[in-house]
Amino acid sequence: MQYYAIIGDIKRSKKIENRCEIQEKLKKILDNVNSIYNNDISAKFLITLGDEFQGLLEITAPILEIIKYIQREIYPIKLRFGVGIGNVSTLINHEAAIGADGPAFYAAREMIEFLREQEKKLKKQAADIQISVYEKKCFETEEINAMFSLLKIIEDSWTEKQRYTIWDMMIHQGSQEMCAERMDITQSTVARRLADGKYIIYQRTMEVIDEAIRRLGNKKW
Fold first, then answer.
1. For 43-102, how does the pLDDT look when each residue is reduced to its tens digit (9 = 90+)?
2. Of 32, 64, 68, 176, whose Cβ has the fewest other Cβ atoms within 10 Å?
3. Are 127 and 156 in contact (CB under 8 A)?
4. Does 166 reside within a domain?
5. Residue 10 falls within a domain, yes or no?
6. How far, in Å, are 35, 53, 134, 160, 170 from residue 108 at the CA level?
7. Is 202 helix (H, G, I), strand (E, B) or coil?
């Protein structure tokens, strides 16, 4: 049986002054994820090593939605995510992903290490999410990872006003008028922020990634 293993890590954590506060905030965010997405989680998220955390998801889980939730809630602290698709060779404890091991986690660990190396070479141009299928080299993962890089480039171009407007639209959907009412701004301001933040391209890329990951997870290897 295949799963999504996620290993996350706080970027440049040693340079964060209020590190203990950030770790406590991260713990609360992961607790919320475990509650909100309980039916999609095989082994609950928890902090494992210092600033690193992991969880195990069902192959039907909305994995991109979960990752983006964590990123939004911890912002402006930045994270990296390694995602692995594969089996788990240990017994699965739903209450905690600690001790879980196997191909899915090997692939996730490989991606975390890959991201760290990419950050040294590419700096801010490096992606913050990468996915791999254990011991399988396939064009699908290359496509998805390339799109993750494009997402990161778009996100890094946002102003704070654009960011929160786009997040509001992504979370609540609906019309620009409804977004404007929630944010207490005009519809024209919402439209301008969305256009300048490349919202349509961003949203479409998210949808394509989501579908590509779903197909990858259901693929028979």
1. 999 999 878 999 999 999 999 999 999 999 999 999 999 999 999 988 788 887 777 789
2. 32
3. no
4. no
5. yes
6. 23, 12, 8, 31, 26
7. helix
CATH at residue 71: 3.30.70.270
Q: Which residues contact 21 (CB under 8 A, 6 or more apart)?
A: none
What are the structure tokens assigned to 220, written together? 């028979």
Q: Which amino acid, residue 216?
A: L
Strands 129-133 and 79-86 turn out to be parallel
Q: Which helix (H) or strand (E) holds 3?
A: strand 3-10
Task: Name residue 107's amino acid.
Answer: A
The pTM is what?
Answer: 0.93
Type of residue numbered 82: G
Residue whose entry in the numeric block shows the structure tokens 């490989």: 110
Convert the pLDDT of each residue in 126-185 to its tens digit.
899 999 998 888 899 999 999 999 999 999 999 999 999 999 999 999 999 999 999 999
